[in-house]
Structure prediction request, 370 residues.
Amino acid sequence: MIIIRKLKDTIEDTIYTALSEIKYQPQHERALIKPCIPSPCQNGTPYITNHRIIAGVIDYLRHQGIKEIIVGEGPLRDYERTFVVSGYEKMCRGRGGGNVRLINLHHAERRCISWDYGELQIPSLVLDSEYINIAKLKVHTSTTVTLSMKNQMGLLRKEDNKKIHLLGLHRPIAALASVVKPNLIIIDAINGEQGGPPGKHGQEVQGINLVICGSHLLPTDAAATRLMGFEPENIRHLKIARDMGVGGFEDEMIGLPLDKYQMNFIPLTDHRRIANLYYHWTDETCSGCLGLMAEIRKTALSHPWHIGRFIRYGLLQRLDIMTGKPEIIKKTHGSRIIGVGDCMRDIASKHGIPFVSGCPPRAVDVLEKI
Ligand code: SF4
Prediction:
């Protein structure tokens, strides 16, 4: 079953009411809530799950007699800052009364499970608790949409997260959904992230003010995909999951009619651009190198020597920074190309491109190569 609800009164109350309407009953005595907080963004921005949704779920779980509640996420870098800047640390402390813990899943105990690619280590909490996946309505550079199925990548060890990209990304996400199945899925559609003109990175879609709750990954993601104006059939990991037998795109729908709220989200392009600096990625580029562009900018601004070089060689002249495993290297007139990240090593060597190693590479090393 899937329910779509418009925000009414407070976000916390809306969630509580939606879960009551679908008569959601936890099956375990302990709950693990997995939001989407991949990087240090402020609450209310369209890049992370709004923590007031988590607060509503905590209230509901408490009312159902759940005493131990854990909020867990595995950001790829800077997790302490991520939890503080996003307000999650404060929310969990305030809401908890001592029994809500916020944890970095990279430090959680893990167990091996089998999946299509051999063995995979998953936090034991996912397997032994009521597992609640709370994703954000967002576009993604490679998968077009990033919803609850993609949110599960945050359960993985860093090395497995990177490996999934190298295994082809779309099929592994579907395969993960066939072995890790939440008891409850919620998609935060209060606002959302869409692309913009070519080369621009995520822009906010404001005032959607919806929440979607479902009991199965695939139909819940399919509903959210349609809400964004995309066809699930055209989203590779959803289609593969359907064809693998993970489930169907349809489920019983209650609450608001999806058609009435359908929008036209703009997808992201395969590069980002600041002045003459083009930053490119492929399906193989994981969050480590995707987040590097922001790090380069931040590091450049932190030191006058870097600022000067960054402006002179990175912004005033055309510079293409390549990540992942691009099939074609196209040189435009007068441009310079740098390959960054170990995934690019062989391609850089084959084409004689200056290269910065690391997995992910350090921003300061990229600035020095510029
Ligand atoms: S080199 Fe970059 S894209 Fe490749 S696995 Fe490492 S961090 Fe990810």
Notes: DSSP finds 16 helices and 17 strands in the chain. The mean pLDDT is 93. Residues 51-63 form the longest helix (13 residues).
